[in-house]
Specification:
The chain has a domain of 152 residues: Sandwich (Jelly Rolls), CATH 2.60.120. Strand 8 and strand 9 form a beta hairpin. The longest helix has 18 residues. The N and C termini lie close together (11 Å). Strands 1, 2, 4, 5, 7, 10 and 12 form a seven-stranded antiparallel beta sheet that branches. Strands 3-6-11-8-9 form a five-stranded antiparallel beta sheet, with no helix packed on it. The chain is built from one helix and twelve strands, in the order ββββββββββββα. The chain is mainly β. It is globular and about 45 Å long. 8% of the residues lie in helices and 48% in strands.
Length: 223
């Protein structure tokens, strides 16, 4: 029987003295659509939308997740937020030393990128980088206050920043792609390819056990 592979790598148990987990690393280089969600925040005139696909040709490392944004007309824009589904921070201890990185290559001009988190069904973004036609690495060390509301989200509808404190709701990680072209001729596309996504952070030992258990459990089933 053909065994399904699980592309997500979780490296936990970098142990400090006393056996306390010091760091966890989550990476994804294959971008299977089942492992990601796509949410849009539009602003300006209606009619914007986005799509996500997996490019089977070699990305920077493994496959690439392709995000295409379409803006309807002048004055409208779209922010597409891709969230990694299987793994995250469980909230049992403060989220510390968060570093996120991704390789990106913009295919159609106008798309800018950064990082994102989801907590309790709400989204926040950090960074707004322009990109060229070549693959580039983007890395940020982030705190809760570095994450802001996505474009088009009413400030009265949610907190200004995610909550990294102990006891907060779990957090999942991802990235955002924003169309900044805002064409005045009736519509325009922006497209980018994203590869080699990774997140490192310091969780509680319990959070690390949950993450490691998910990864190891699925690996055992693939043997």
């Amino acid at each position: 029987m053909r065994q399904a592979s699980f592309p997500i790598v979780v490296l936990g148990a970098l142990l400090a003295s006393g056996g306390r987990a010091s760091a966890a690393l989550i990476t994804d280089n294959t971008f299977d659509l089942a492992n990601w969600s796509l949410s849009d925040a539009t602003y300006g005139s209606p009619g914007s939308y986005s799509s996500a696909s997996v490019d089977g040709s070699p990305g920077f490392e493994g496959n690439a997740r392709v995000i295409q944004n379409y803006t309807a007309d002048n004055g409208s824009g779209i922010n597409s937020i891709s969230i990694f589904l299987p793994q995250g921070w469980d909230g049992s201890e403060p989220l510390e030393q968060l570093t996120m990185s991704i390789h990106a290559r913009i295919l159609y001009s106008g798309q800018q990128l950064g990082f994102a988190v989801e907590q309790g069904g709400r989204f926040w973004i950090a960074g707004l980088f322009s990109n060229t036609a070549s693959w580039e690495l983007y890395t940020m060390a982030l705190t809760a206050t570095d994450f802001m509301l996505p474009f088009g989200v009413d400030p009265a509808s949610q907190a200004a920043h995610p909550d990294f404190a102990a006891g907060a709701a779990p957090i999942r990680f991802g990235f955002h792609a924003t169309n900044t072209t805002l064409p005045n001729w009736g519509g325009g596309y922006a497209m980018g390819r994203y590869s080699a996504f990774s997140v490192s952070f310091v969780p509680a030992p319990g959070a690390l056990a949950v993450l490691g258990g998910l990864a190891l459990g699925r690996r055992r089933r693939t043997r």
